[in-house]
Amino acid sequence: MTHATGFMGEDDVNCEIRDEHGTAVVSLVGDVDLESSPKVRAALLDCVGTRRAVLVEMSGVSYIDSSGVASLVEAFQLARKSKTRFALAAPSDAARRVLELARLDKVFNIYASLAEGLRAPDAEP
Amino acid sequence: MAEALNSGDEPAACAELAGDRILELRVTARPKRLRVVRAAVEQAARLVGCSGRVAGDIVIAVDEACQNVIRHAYRGDPDGEIVLDIRSDGECIGIDLIDFAAPVDVASVRPRPIDELRPGGLGTHFIRECMDEVFFGAPPCGAGNRLRMIRRIE
Question: Using a CB-CB distance cutoff of 8 angstroms, which residues of chain A are in contact with residue B120?
Fold first, then answer.
């Protein structure tokens, strides 16, 4: 069952959080930049703080800068400390390029689609 | 330690950018203005013949450079001004990013080691990766800093 559990403002980025069978799916849509990345950071850290698995759906990311990448890294590190899962799904070309520039495409678990991320073996509770 | 953008302690001597002026843009140093800057830079890059991928890289570099000005040169002062001068000679696209803040210590501006997994500090690395040439040039009269970025058109 899917239901929305949170929704954040509508300027540069929309950040929708929903539960998918125990995994918090964070869907980012729009530009994740210096203006909007604090909202994304707060949402990611909140989700990781609940000790649920977190899957960040990035197909709608039209732009992400170094501050957005820093938010992903911070959430990833917190998840690793908490021994919870943190992964990315369906990065847009723009997002993938920046992850490559940051050499993070080899650090994060990145799934080609949201469905693939949800059914991956490490998604099991 | 990664190399600084400039080889010495001083901004490099630099002539005006070569080629025709494609765009001159003046914005205040506010994060909300970055969206406008990105859109304008992408259009300018496409106009001179850059592919979508190269235009995207130039947008990343300029956006990160503007962020550095907002955060480090103006230290969040929203009334500081940023001027972008974009020119092209048909082979390359050149961008001068000019601010009116206190001069930065050019020897200290360098990318951090990329193999360290930690949040932050990637902006200068992105700029260097996305452009062919990046350095602080002597600022025009009355300005504080000039960052010059050049990318071959492909």
Answer: 66-67, 70
